[in-house]
Amino acid sequence: MNVRIIKAGVLDTLQDLGRYSWQHLGINPGGAMDKWSAQVANILVGNNRTEAVIELHYPAAELFFEEPALIAISGADFSAHINAEEIPLGQPVLINKYSILQFYGLKKGARAYLGVHGGFDIPIWLNSYSTQLKARAGGYKGRALHKEDEIPIRSIPSSLTQLLGKTEFLILPWKSDSQTGLIKEVPFFLLEGDEWNRLTNESKQKILSESFTVSPQSDRMGYRLKGSPLTTTNNTEMISSAVNCGTIQLLPDGQLIVLMADHQTTGGYPRIAHVISAHQSRLAQINAGEKIRFSFTSQQIAEELLLQQQQHLQQLQNACTFRLQEYIK
Amino acid sequence: MSSTNLSYRIFPLGDTAITIEFGSAINSSINNEVIARFQQLQQQPFRGMIEIVPAYCTLTVLYDIGKIKKEYPTGSSAFETVKKIIEERLAQPVEHINVGEHLVKIPVCYAEEFAWDIPQVAAKNNLTVEEVITLHQSIKYKVYMLGFLPGFAYMGEVDEKITMPRKTEPVPIAAGSVGIAGVQTGIYPFASPGGWQIIGRTPLKLFNVGRDEPVLLKAGDTVQFHAISIDEFHQQENDSLF
Q1: Least confident span in A174-183, A289-298, B93-102, B136-145
Q2: What angle separates helix A299-325 from helix B78-91, to the nearest 10 degrees?
Q3: Fewer Cβ in 10 A, N or C end of chain B?
Protein backbone atom coordinates (compact mmCIF):
# COMPACT_ATOMS: atom_id res chain seq x y z
CA MET A 1 0.00 0.00 0.00
CA ASN A 2 0.99 3.62 -0.42
CA VAL A 3 0.92 6.92 1.36
CA ARG A 4 0.14 9.63 -1.18
CA ILE A 5 1.29 13.22 -0.85
CA ILE A 6 -1.78 15.34 -1.59
CA LYS A 7 -0.02 18.64 -0.86
CA ALA A 8 3.74 19.17 -0.70
CA GLY A 9 5.42 20.69 2.35
CA VAL A 10 8.37 23.06 2.35
CA LEU A 11 10.99 20.31 2.88
CA ASP A 12 9.86 16.80 3.72
CA THR A 13 12.34 13.96 3.27
CA LEU A 14 12.80 10.32 4.16
CA GLN A 15 15.52 9.98 6.80
CA ASP A 16 16.99 7.44 9.19
CA LEU A 17 19.89 7.53 11.62
CA GLY A 18 22.41 8.34 8.89
CA ARG A 19 24.69 6.85 6.28
CA TYR A 20 28.05 5.95 7.79
CA SER A 21 31.24 4.43 6.28
CA TRP A 22 31.26 6.65 3.18
CA GLN A 23 32.71 9.94 4.38
CA HIS A 24 36.08 9.00 2.88
CA LEU A 25 34.32 9.37 -0.50
CA GLY A 26 32.87 12.75 0.45
CA ILE A 27 29.42 11.28 1.14
CA ASN A 28 28.15 12.81 4.36
CA PRO A 29 26.12 10.86 6.95
CA GLY A 30 22.95 12.99 6.72
CA GLY A 31 20.06 11.39 8.55
CA ALA A 32 17.39 12.90 10.78
CA MET A 33 18.28 16.27 12.31
CA ASP A 34 16.60 15.26 15.58
CA LYS A 35 17.67 11.64 15.88
CA TRP A 36 16.02 11.30 19.29
CA SER A 37 12.57 12.06 17.92
CA ALA A 38 13.11 9.96 14.78
CA GLN A 39 13.86 6.99 17.05
CA VAL A 40 10.87 7.72 19.30
CA ALA A 41 8.52 7.77 16.27
CA ASN A 42 9.76 4.32 15.24
CA ILE A 43 9.74 2.90 18.76
CA LEU A 44 6.12 3.97 19.39
CA VAL A 45 4.89 1.99 16.38
CA GLY A 46 7.01 -1.06 17.17
CA ASN A 47 9.74 -0.60 14.57
CA ASN A 48 13.48 -0.96 14.70
CA ARG A 49 15.00 2.42 15.43
CA THR A 50 16.82 2.32 12.09
CA GLU A 51 13.65 2.29 9.96
CA ALA A 52 12.98 5.24 7.67
CA VAL A 53 10.75 8.07 8.94
CA ILE A 54 9.51 11.20 7.19
CA GLU A 55 11.12 14.38 8.51
CA LEU A 56 8.64 17.24 8.14
CA HIS A 57 9.34 20.98 8.24
CA TYR A 58 6.56 23.55 8.61
CA PRO A 59 4.44 24.10 6.49
CA ALA A 60 4.34 20.32 6.26
CA ALA A 61 2.91 17.98 3.63
CA GLU A 62 -0.62 16.59 3.66
CA LEU A 63 -0.74 12.82 3.39
CA PHE A 64 -3.43 10.38 2.28
CA PHE A 65 -3.38 6.77 3.52
CA GLU A 66 -4.91 4.25 1.10
CA GLU A 67 -5.07 1.52 3.73
CA PRO A 68 -5.15 1.31 7.53
CA ALA A 69 -1.85 2.17 9.25
CA LEU A 70 -0.33 2.53 12.69
CA ILE A 71 1.44 5.88 12.86
CA ALA A 72 3.22 8.06 15.42
CA ILE A 73 4.43 11.64 15.26
CA SER A 74 7.29 12.85 17.39
CA GLY A 75 9.49 15.94 17.71
CA ALA A 76 7.99 19.30 16.79
CA ASP A 77 4.31 20.01 17.47
CA PHE A 78 2.73 21.06 14.17
CA SER A 79 -0.78 20.32 15.45
CA ALA A 80 -1.33 17.03 13.62
CA HIS A 81 -4.90 16.23 12.55
CA ILE A 82 -6.45 13.05 11.16
CA ASN A 83 -9.56 13.84 9.14
CA ALA A 84 -9.75 17.25 10.83
CA GLU A 85 -9.48 15.89 14.38
CA GLU A 86 -6.38 16.62 16.42
CA ILE A 87 -4.20 13.65 17.39
CA PRO A 88 -1.58 13.59 20.15
CA LEU A 89 2.16 13.88 19.67
CA GLY A 90 4.34 11.05 20.95
CA GLN A 91 1.56 8.46 20.96
CA PRO A 92 0.73 5.68 18.45
CA VAL A 93 -2.47 6.21 16.48
CA LEU A 94 -4.20 3.48 14.50
CA ILE A 95 -5.82 5.11 11.47
CA ASN A 96 -8.33 3.68 9.02
CA LYS A 97 -8.06 3.54 5.24
CA TYR A 98 -8.66 6.81 3.37
CA SER A 99 -7.35 8.86 6.29
CA ILE A 100 -5.90 12.31 5.67
CA LEU A 101 -3.06 13.55 7.87
CA GLN A 102 -2.68 17.33 8.00
CA PHE A 103 -0.72 19.79 10.11
CA TYR A 104 -2.58 22.92 11.19
CA GLY A 105 0.10 25.14 12.69
CA LEU A 106 3.56 25.47 14.14
CA LYS A 107 3.14 25.28 17.91
CA LYS A 108 6.61 24.26 19.04
CA GLY A 109 9.85 22.98 17.54
CA ALA A 110 11.21 22.85 14.01
CA ARG A 111 10.99 19.25 12.76
CA ALA A 112 8.33 16.58 13.18
CA TYR A 113 8.88 12.89 12.47
CA LEU A 114 6.30 10.49 11.09
CA GLY A 115 6.85 6.80 11.76
CA VAL A 116 4.62 4.04 10.36
CA HIS A 117 4.40 0.48 11.65
CA GLY A 118 6.45 -1.80 9.36
CA GLY A 119 8.32 1.16 7.94
CA PHE A 120 8.43 2.86 4.55
CA ASP A 121 9.22 0.29 1.87
CA ILE A 122 11.81 2.25 -0.11
CA PRO A 123 15.15 1.12 -1.63
CA ILE A 124 18.14 1.34 0.66
CA TRP A 125 21.23 3.14 -0.73
CA LEU A 126 24.67 2.54 0.80
CA ASN A 127 23.00 0.94 3.78
CA SER A 128 20.78 3.90 4.64
CA TYR A 129 17.33 5.29 3.79
CA SER A 130 18.43 8.89 4.29
CA THR A 131 17.90 11.34 1.43
CA GLN A 132 21.16 12.74 -0.01
CA LEU A 133 19.83 15.88 -1.67
CA LYS A 134 23.14 16.94 -3.29
CA ALA A 135 23.76 13.58 -4.98
CA ARG A 136 20.01 13.05 -5.55
CA ALA A 137 20.33 9.62 -4.02
CA GLY A 138 18.78 7.65 -1.18
CA GLY A 139 15.41 8.30 0.45
CA TYR A 140 12.47 8.66 -1.92
CA LYS A 141 13.98 9.19 -5.40
CA GLY A 142 16.82 11.19 -3.84
CA ARG A 143 14.68 14.27 -3.29
CA ALA A 144 12.15 16.03 -1.10
CA LEU A 145 8.55 14.81 -1.38
CA HIS A 146 6.33 16.34 -4.09
CA LYS A 147 2.60 16.39 -4.64
CA GLU A 148 1.32 13.05 -6.03
CA ASP A 149 4.32 11.08 -4.77
CA GLU A 150 3.31 7.62 -3.59
CA ILE A 151 5.52 6.21 -0.88
CA PRO A 152 5.07 2.48 -0.29
CA ILE A 153 4.56 1.34 3.31
CA ARG A 154 4.34 -2.18 4.64
CA SER A 155 0.87 -3.44 5.65
CA ILE A 156 -0.22 -3.72 9.26
CA PRO A 157 -1.28 -7.06 10.79
CA SER A 158 -4.96 -8.00 10.32
CA SER A 159 -5.50 -8.03 14.11
CA LEU A 160 -4.92 -4.25 14.12
CA THR A 161 -7.28 -3.72 11.17
CA GLN A 162 -9.97 -5.71 12.95
CA LEU A 163 -9.50 -3.72 16.13
CA LEU A 164 -10.11 -0.56 14.18
CA GLY A 165 -13.38 -1.76 12.63
CA LYS A 166 -15.18 1.23 11.20
CA THR A 167 -13.78 3.89 13.53
CA GLU A 168 -11.74 6.60 11.83
CA PHE A 169 -8.85 6.34 14.24
CA LEU A 170 -7.89 4.89 17.58
CA ILE A 171 -5.27 6.32 19.92
CA LEU A 172 -3.32 3.47 21.54
CA PRO A 173 -2.64 3.80 25.26
CA TRP A 174 1.15 4.15 25.44
CA LYS A 175 3.25 7.20 24.91
CA SER A 176 6.60 8.87 25.12
CA ASP A 177 6.36 11.77 27.55
CA SER A 178 9.92 12.74 26.96
CA GLN A 179 10.22 15.25 24.13
CA THR A 180 13.79 16.14 25.05
CA GLY A 181 14.05 18.08 21.85
CA LEU A 182 11.75 20.72 23.24
CA ILE A 183 13.39 21.77 26.50
CA LYS A 184 14.95 25.11 25.73
CA GLU A 185 15.87 26.50 29.10
CA VAL A 186 19.28 24.91 29.67
CA PRO A 187 22.35 25.98 27.70
CA PHE A 188 23.82 23.76 25.01
CA PHE A 189 26.85 21.92 26.30
CA LEU A 190 30.11 22.35 24.42
CA LEU A 191 33.46 20.64 24.22
CA GLU A 192 36.49 22.68 23.18
CA GLY A 193 37.50 22.51 19.53
CA ASP A 194 41.11 22.21 18.46
CA GLU A 195 41.18 25.92 17.49
CA TRP A 196 39.46 27.20 20.65
CA ASN A 197 42.70 28.82 21.74
CA ARG A 198 42.88 30.89 18.57
CA LEU A 199 40.11 33.05 20.06
CA THR A 200 41.01 36.16 22.01
CA ASN A 201 40.15 35.98 25.73
CA GLU A 202 37.41 38.53 25.13
CA SER A 203 35.85 36.35 22.42
CA LYS A 204 36.05 33.25 24.62
CA GLN A 205 34.19 35.17 27.28
CA LYS A 206 31.53 36.24 24.79
CA ILE A 207 30.77 32.64 23.82
CA LEU A 208 30.11 31.76 27.45
CA SER A 209 28.28 34.88 28.54
CA GLU A 210 26.29 36.09 25.51
CA SER A 211 23.41 34.54 23.63
CA PHE A 212 23.40 33.80 19.91
CA THR A 213 20.43 34.07 17.56
CA VAL A 214 19.78 31.31 15.03
CA SER A 215 19.77 33.11 11.67
CA PRO A 216 17.25 32.53 8.85
CA GLN A 217 20.19 31.26 6.72
CA SER A 218 20.11 28.03 8.73
CA ASP A 219 19.25 24.70 7.16
CA ARG A 220 19.94 20.97 7.39
CA MET A 221 23.63 21.65 6.64
CA GLY A 222 24.19 24.08 9.46
CA TYR A 223 22.86 26.70 11.83
CA ARG A 224 24.33 30.12 11.25
CA LEU A 225 24.41 32.10 14.47
CA LYS A 226 24.28 35.85 14.90
CA GLY A 227 26.11 37.41 17.79
CA SER A 228 28.75 40.02 18.44
CA PRO A 229 31.68 39.25 16.10
CA LEU A 230 34.47 37.10 17.49
CA THR A 231 38.15 37.63 16.85
CA THR A 232 41.21 35.41 16.79
CA THR A 233 44.85 35.95 17.65
CA ASN A 234 45.98 33.58 14.90
CA ASN A 235 44.68 33.79 11.34
CA THR A 236 46.82 31.05 9.79
CA GLU A 237 44.84 29.51 6.96
CA MET A 238 43.83 25.96 7.81
CA ILE A 239 44.19 22.86 5.68
CA SER A 240 40.87 21.04 5.12
CA SER A 241 40.21 18.29 7.60
CA ALA A 242 37.22 16.27 8.79
CA VAL A 243 34.43 17.97 10.72
CA ASN A 244 31.70 16.39 12.81
CA CYS A 245 28.00 16.92 13.43
CA GLY A 246 27.85 19.60 16.12
CA THR A 247 31.18 21.16 15.16
CA ILE A 248 31.10 24.96 15.59
CA GLN A 249 33.23 26.74 13.01
CA LEU A 250 34.29 30.38 13.05
CA LEU A 251 33.55 31.99 9.68
CA PRO A 252 35.79 34.75 8.23
CA ASP A 253 33.23 37.42 9.23
CA GLY A 254 33.58 36.51 12.92
CA GLN A 255 30.24 34.70 13.13
CA LEU A 256 29.67 31.07 14.07
CA ILE A 257 28.09 28.14 12.24
CA VAL A 258 27.05 24.91 13.96
CA LEU A 259 27.29 21.98 11.56
CA MET A 260 24.15 19.87 11.45
CA ALA A 261 23.10 16.55 9.83
CA ASP A 262 23.86 17.47 6.20
CA HIS A 263 27.26 19.00 6.99
CA GLN A 264 30.12 18.58 4.53
CA THR A 265 32.56 15.82 5.43
CA THR A 266 35.51 18.21 5.61
CA GLY A 267 36.06 21.89 6.25
CA GLY A 268 38.77 24.48 6.53
CA TYR A 269 37.46 27.00 9.07
CA PRO A 270 38.65 27.04 12.70
CA ARG A 271 36.79 24.52 14.85
CA ILE A 272 36.08 26.56 17.94
CA ALA A 273 33.94 24.02 19.79
CA HIS A 274 31.52 21.12 19.40
CA VAL A 275 27.92 20.82 20.63
CA ILE A 276 27.77 17.50 22.48
CA SER A 277 25.87 14.66 20.77
CA ALA A 278 23.28 14.42 23.55
CA HIS A 279 22.22 18.04 22.89
CA GLN A 280 22.14 17.92 19.08
CA SER A 281 18.54 16.67 18.82
CA ARG A 282 17.36 19.49 21.05
CA LEU A 283 19.29 21.97 18.92
CA ALA A 284 17.55 20.60 15.79
CA GLN A 285 14.22 21.78 17.26
CA ILE A 286 15.33 25.42 17.50
CA ASN A 287 13.82 27.73 14.89
CA ALA A 288 15.39 30.72 13.15
CA GLY A 289 15.06 33.82 15.32
CA GLU A 290 15.39 31.94 18.61
CA LYS A 291 18.29 32.59 20.95
CA ILE A 292 20.63 29.95 22.33
CA ARG A 293 23.33 29.90 25.00
CA PHE A 294 26.39 27.75 25.53
CA SER A 295 28.35 26.36 28.45
CA PHE A 296 31.28 23.97 28.58
CA THR A 297 31.22 20.43 29.87
CA SER A 298 33.66 17.51 29.99
CA GLN A 299 34.18 14.59 27.64
CA GLN A 300 33.04 12.21 30.43
CA ILE A 301 29.76 14.08 31.02
CA ALA A 302 29.09 14.33 27.29
CA GLU A 303 29.52 10.57 26.94
CA GLU A 304 27.44 9.86 30.04
CA LEU A 305 24.54 12.03 28.78
CA LEU A 306 24.52 10.23 25.43
CA LEU A 307 24.54 6.83 27.14
CA GLN A 308 21.64 7.90 29.36
CA GLN A 309 19.66 8.86 26.25
CA GLN A 310 20.40 5.50 24.65
CA GLN A 311 19.31 3.69 27.80
CA HIS A 312 16.13 5.75 27.97
CA LEU A 313 15.31 4.85 24.34
CA GLN A 314 16.01 1.18 25.06
CA GLN A 315 13.59 1.22 28.01
CA LEU A 316 10.94 2.94 25.91
CA GLN A 317 11.46 0.35 23.20
CA ASN A 318 11.10 -2.55 25.64
CA ALA A 319 7.90 -1.07 27.05
CA CYS A 320 6.36 -0.30 23.64
CA THR A 321 7.21 -3.71 22.20
CA PHE A 322 5.55 -5.31 25.23
CA ARG A 323 2.41 -3.20 24.94
CA LEU A 324 2.11 -3.71 21.18
CA GLN A 325 2.22 -7.49 21.66
CA GLU A 326 -1.19 -7.28 23.34
CA TYR A 327 -2.59 -5.92 20.09
CA ILE A 328 -0.77 -8.00 17.52
CA LYS A 329 -1.90 -11.58 17.84
CA MET B 1 57.75 2.73 -0.17
CA SER B 2 58.71 3.72 3.33
CA SER B 3 58.55 2.22 6.75
CA THR B 4 59.58 5.28 8.74
CA ASN B 5 56.35 6.58 10.14
CA LEU B 6 55.66 10.17 11.06
CA SER B 7 55.09 11.64 14.50
CA TYR B 8 51.57 12.77 15.20
CA ARG B 9 49.24 14.78 17.45
CA ILE B 10 45.90 13.39 18.59
CA PHE B 11 42.81 15.33 19.74
CA PRO B 12 39.03 14.89 20.14
CA LEU B 13 36.65 16.13 17.41
CA GLY B 14 33.57 16.42 19.59
CA ASP B 15 32.43 13.47 21.70
CA THR B 16 32.16 10.85 18.92
CA ALA B 17 35.38 11.27 16.91
CA ILE B 18 39.12 11.57 17.32
CA THR B 19 41.58 13.20 14.91
CA ILE B 20 45.19 12.21 14.34
CA GLU B 21 47.29 14.95 12.74
CA PHE B 22 50.52 13.92 11.00
CA GLY B 23 51.63 17.40 9.97
CA SER B 24 50.31 20.74 8.82
CA ALA B 25 51.18 21.09 5.14
CA ILE B 26 49.85 19.94 1.78
CA ASN B 27 52.62 17.49 1.21
CA SER B 28 52.72 14.10 -0.46
CA SER B 29 54.74 12.26 2.17
CA ILE B 30 52.46 13.41 5.03
CA ASN B 31 49.42 12.43 2.94
CA ASN B 32 50.97 9.03 2.10
CA GLU B 33 51.18 8.35 5.82
CA VAL B 34 47.49 9.34 6.20
CA ILE B 35 46.49 6.96 3.40
CA ALA B 36 48.63 4.11 4.75
CA ARG B 37 47.10 4.53 8.21
CA PHE B 38 43.62 4.76 6.66
CA GLN B 39 44.21 1.41 4.93
CA GLN B 40 45.64 -0.10 8.10
CA LEU B 41 42.52 0.81 10.12
CA GLN B 42 40.10 -0.12 7.32
CA GLN B 43 41.65 -3.57 7.14
CA GLN B 44 41.73 -4.06 10.88
CA PRO B 45 38.89 -2.05 12.41
CA PHE B 46 38.56 -2.11 16.20
CA ARG B 47 35.25 -2.98 17.85
CA GLY B 48 33.13 0.15 18.19
CA MET B 49 34.79 1.93 15.25
CA ILE B 50 32.22 3.48 12.86
CA GLU B 51 34.34 4.90 10.06
CA ILE B 52 37.52 6.75 9.13
CA VAL B 53 37.84 10.02 7.23
CA PRO B 54 41.26 10.78 5.69
CA ALA B 55 42.16 14.36 4.74
CA TYR B 56 45.39 16.11 3.63
CA CYS B 57 47.30 15.54 6.86
CA THR B 58 44.74 14.13 9.25
CA LEU B 59 42.82 10.96 9.84
CA THR B 60 39.56 11.17 11.78
CA VAL B 61 38.00 8.12 13.38
CA LEU B 62 34.30 8.06 14.35
CA TYR B 63 33.30 5.68 17.11
CA ASP B 64 30.22 4.43 18.92
CA ILE B 65 30.45 5.51 22.58
CA GLY B 66 28.00 2.82 23.74
CA LYS B 67 29.89 0.00 22.03
CA ILE B 68 33.30 1.23 23.22
CA LYS B 69 32.07 1.46 26.83
CA LYS B 70 30.64 -2.05 26.57
CA GLU B 71 33.69 -3.61 24.94
CA TYR B 72 36.26 -1.84 27.11
CA PRO B 73 34.51 -1.14 30.44
CA THR B 74 37.69 -0.15 32.29
CA GLY B 75 38.55 3.04 30.39
CA SER B 76 37.87 6.39 32.10
CA SER B 77 36.08 7.61 28.95
CA ALA B 78 35.39 6.24 25.48
CA PHE B 79 37.71 8.94 24.14
CA GLU B 80 40.63 7.77 26.33
CA THR B 81 39.97 4.16 25.31
CA VAL B 82 39.92 4.96 21.59
CA LYS B 83 43.02 7.14 21.94
CA LYS B 84 44.88 4.24 23.53
CA ILE B 85 43.77 1.79 20.83
CA ILE B 86 44.88 4.19 18.10
CA GLU B 87 48.22 4.85 19.75
CA GLU B 88 48.81 1.09 19.83
CA ARG B 89 47.96 0.82 16.13
CA LEU B 90 50.20 3.75 15.26
CA ALA B 91 53.10 2.12 17.10
CA GLN B 92 53.01 -0.64 14.47
CA PRO B 93 54.95 0.51 11.40
CA VAL B 94 53.09 0.44 8.08
CA GLU B 95 54.43 0.63 4.55
CA HIS B 96 53.26 3.26 2.09
CA ILE B 97 51.96 0.85 -0.50
CA ASN B 98 49.61 1.20 -3.46
CA VAL B 99 49.63 5.00 -3.40
CA GLY B 100 49.65 6.39 -6.92
CA GLU B 101 49.42 3.04 -8.70
CA HIS B 102 45.91 3.68 -9.97
CA LEU B 103 46.06 6.16 -12.89
CA VAL B 104 42.82 7.80 -14.05
CA LYS B 105 42.84 9.76 -17.32
CA ILE B 106 40.34 12.61 -17.36
CA PRO B 107 39.39 14.49 -20.54
CA VAL B 108 38.86 18.23 -20.09
CA CYS B 109 37.41 20.72 -22.53
CA TYR B 110 39.17 24.05 -21.85
CA ALA B 111 36.96 25.96 -24.32
CA GLU B 112 35.93 29.48 -23.35
CA GLU B 113 32.28 28.59 -22.76
CA PHE B 114 33.26 26.20 -19.94
CA ALA B 115 36.46 27.89 -18.71
CA TRP B 116 34.80 30.85 -17.02
CA ASP B 117 37.80 32.03 -15.05
CA ILE B 118 40.70 31.04 -17.29
CA PRO B 119 41.33 34.61 -18.57
CA GLN B 120 41.76 35.80 -14.97
CA VAL B 121 44.08 32.89 -14.09
CA ALA B 122 46.19 33.73 -17.18
CA ALA B 123 46.24 37.47 -16.46
CA LYS B 124 47.15 37.06 -12.80
CA ASN B 125 50.11 34.86 -13.73
CA ASN B 126 51.19 36.81 -16.87
CA LEU B 127 50.48 33.84 -19.13
CA THR B 128 48.39 33.25 -22.24
CA VAL B 129 45.27 31.09 -21.92
CA GLU B 130 47.06 28.46 -24.05
CA GLU B 131 49.94 28.33 -21.57
CA VAL B 132 47.54 27.82 -18.65
CA ILE B 133 45.92 24.91 -20.53
CA THR B 134 49.29 23.33 -21.29
CA LEU B 135 50.58 23.75 -17.74
CA HIS B 136 47.42 22.30 -16.21
CA GLN B 137 47.95 19.09 -18.24
CA SER B 138 51.70 18.98 -17.61
CA ILE B 139 51.54 17.31 -14.19
CA LYS B 140 50.24 13.97 -12.98
CA TYR B 141 48.24 14.95 -9.93
CA LYS B 142 47.78 13.07 -6.72
CA VAL B 143 44.31 12.74 -5.20
CA TYR B 144 44.99 13.83 -1.63
CA MET B 145 41.50 13.48 -0.25
CA LEU B 146 37.77 13.59 -0.97
CA GLY B 147 35.43 16.01 0.71
CA PHE B 148 33.10 19.00 0.30
CA LEU B 149 30.69 17.11 -2.02
CA PRO B 150 30.19 13.38 -2.70
CA GLY B 151 33.05 12.43 -5.03
CA PHE B 152 34.86 15.81 -4.92
CA ALA B 153 38.59 15.03 -5.18
CA TYR B 154 41.20 17.48 -3.88
CA MET B 155 44.23 17.10 -6.17
CA GLY B 156 47.62 18.72 -6.31
CA GLU B 157 49.84 20.35 -6.71
CA VAL B 158 49.46 22.49 -9.79
CA ASP B 159 52.48 24.19 -11.39
CA GLU B 160 53.20 27.27 -9.30
CA LYS B 161 52.83 29.40 -12.46
CA ILE B 162 49.05 28.74 -12.56
CA THR B 163 48.14 28.97 -8.87
CA MET B 164 45.25 31.27 -8.04
CA PRO B 165 43.47 32.01 -4.76
CA ARG B 166 39.84 30.98 -4.47
CA LYS B 167 37.09 33.56 -4.89
CA THR B 168 35.98 35.46 -1.82
CA GLU B 169 32.29 34.65 -2.44
CA PRO B 170 30.96 31.35 -3.79
CA VAL B 171 29.19 31.42 -7.18
CA PRO B 172 27.01 28.78 -8.91
CA ILE B 173 29.23 26.24 -10.67
CA ALA B 174 28.20 23.62 -13.28
CA ALA B 175 28.66 19.87 -12.80
CA GLY B 176 31.96 18.60 -14.24
CA SER B 177 33.70 21.97 -13.85
CA VAL B 178 37.45 21.73 -13.31
CA GLY B 179 38.87 24.37 -10.99
CA ILE B 180 41.98 25.70 -9.30
CA ALA B 181 42.28 26.96 -5.72
CA GLY B 182 45.77 27.82 -4.53
CA VAL B 183 47.95 24.84 -5.42
CA GLN B 184 44.94 22.53 -5.61
CA THR B 185 42.90 21.40 -8.59
CA GLY B 186 39.53 19.68 -8.40
CA ILE B 187 36.34 18.73 -10.25
CA TYR B 188 32.78 19.54 -9.16
CA PRO B 189 30.75 16.28 -9.37
CA PHE B 190 27.47 18.23 -9.13
CA ALA B 191 26.22 21.70 -9.84
CA SER B 192 26.96 23.56 -6.62
CA PRO B 193 27.96 26.92 -5.21
CA GLY B 194 31.75 27.07 -5.07
CA GLY B 195 34.75 29.37 -4.91
CA TRP B 196 37.30 27.65 -7.13
CA GLN B 197 38.55 29.31 -10.35
CA ILE B 198 36.99 27.37 -13.22
CA ILE B 199 39.30 26.55 -16.14
CA GLY B 200 37.42 23.80 -18.00
CA ARG B 201 34.87 21.02 -17.84
CA THR B 202 34.99 17.23 -18.06
CA PRO B 203 32.23 15.13 -19.65
CA LEU B 204 33.01 12.32 -17.20
CA LYS B 205 30.59 11.62 -14.39
CA LEU B 206 32.51 11.73 -11.13
CA PHE B 207 29.62 10.19 -9.25
CA ASN B 208 27.33 7.31 -10.23
CA VAL B 209 24.58 6.46 -7.79
CA GLY B 210 24.06 3.01 -9.34
CA ARG B 211 27.54 1.70 -8.48
CA ASP B 212 28.61 -0.15 -5.33
CA GLU B 213 31.52 2.31 -5.18
CA PRO B 214 29.72 5.39 -6.43
CA VAL B 215 32.72 7.70 -6.96
CA LEU B 216 35.32 7.72 -9.72
CA LEU B 217 38.33 9.01 -7.75
CA LYS B 218 39.76 7.92 -4.41
CA ALA B 219 42.49 9.25 -2.15
CA GLY B 220 45.83 7.97 -3.41
CA ASP B 221 44.82 7.81 -7.09
CA THR B 222 46.86 9.57 -9.78
CA VAL B 223 45.05 11.79 -12.28
CA GLN B 224 46.19 12.92 -15.72
CA PHE B 225 44.14 15.54 -17.55
CA HIS B 226 44.08 15.74 -21.37
CA ALA B 227 42.45 18.39 -23.55
CA ILE B 228 39.45 17.60 -25.77
CA SER B 229 37.45 19.73 -28.21
CA ILE B 230 33.86 20.87 -27.74
CA ASP B 231 32.68 18.22 -30.22
CA GLU B 232 34.50 15.49 -28.33
CA PHE B 233 33.04 16.86 -25.09
CA HIS B 234 29.46 16.51 -26.33
CA GLN B 235 30.14 13.06 -27.79
CA GLN B 236 31.64 11.78 -24.55
CA GLU B 237 29.04 13.45 -22.39
CA ASN B 238 26.43 11.02 -23.67
CA ASP B 239 28.32 7.83 -22.90
CA SER B 240 30.41 8.76 -19.93
CA LEU B 241 28.86 6.83 -17.06
CA PHE B 242 31.94 5.14 -15.70
Answers
A1: A174-183
A2: 110
A3: N
Of A128, A160, A181, the position where a domain reaches its end is A181
The CA distance from A209 to A193, in Å, is 18
Q: Which residue of B has its CA nearest to A28?
A: B150
- Whether CATH 3.40.50.300 fits B103-238: no
| Residue A227 domain-assigned (yes or no) | yes
Which of A 206-245 lie inside 8 A of B, CB atoms?
239-245
Beta-carbon pairs below 8 A across chains A and B: 146
pLDDT in tens, B89-147: 999 999 886 666 899 999 999 999 999 999 999 999 999 999 999 999 999 999 999 99
Q: Find the CB nearest A26 among B11, B26, B152.
A: B152
pLDDT in tens, A304-317: 999 999 999 999 99
CA-closest candidate to residue A293, choices A197, A183, A180, A189: A189
Nearest to B70 by CA among B41, B102, B100, B47: B47
SS3 state at A44: helix
Q: Give which of B176, B97, B172, B164 is closest to B136, Cα–Cα.
A: B164
- Residue A315 CB-half CA count within 13 A: 9
pLDDT at B1: 45
Cα–Cα distance measured from residue A272 to residue A256, given in angstroms and rounded to the nearest whole number:
9
Residue A320 lies in a domain: no
If asked whether residues A142 and A205 sit together in one domain, one would say no
Inter-chain CB proximity B147 and A264 less than 8 Å:
yes
Nearest-neighbour CA in chain B from A193: distance (Å): 7
Dump pLDDT digits (tens) for A108-147: 999 999 999 999 999 999 999 999 999 999 999 999 999 9
Q: Each residue of A55-81: pLDDT tens digit?
A: 999 999 999 999 999 999 999 999 999
Q: Is A274 on the interface with B (CB under 8 A)?
A: yes
Confidence of residue B216 (pLDDT cuts 50, 70, 90): very high
User: A191-202 pLDDT, tens per residue?
Assistant: 999 999 999 999
Strands (E), chain B: 9-12, 17-21, 49-54, 58-63, 103-108, 141-146, 153-156, 171-173, 177-181, 184-187, 192-194, 197-201, 222-227
Taken as a whole, chain B contains a residue count of 242
CA nearest neighbour of B159 among B191, B189, B187, B127: B127
Domain that holds residue A151: 2-181
- The answer to whether the beta carbons of residues B66 and A17 sit under 8 Å apart is no
Q: In what order do the strands lie in the sheet with B17-21?
A: B9-12, B17-21, B58-63, B49-54
The CATH class that applies to domain B9-91 reads: alpha beta
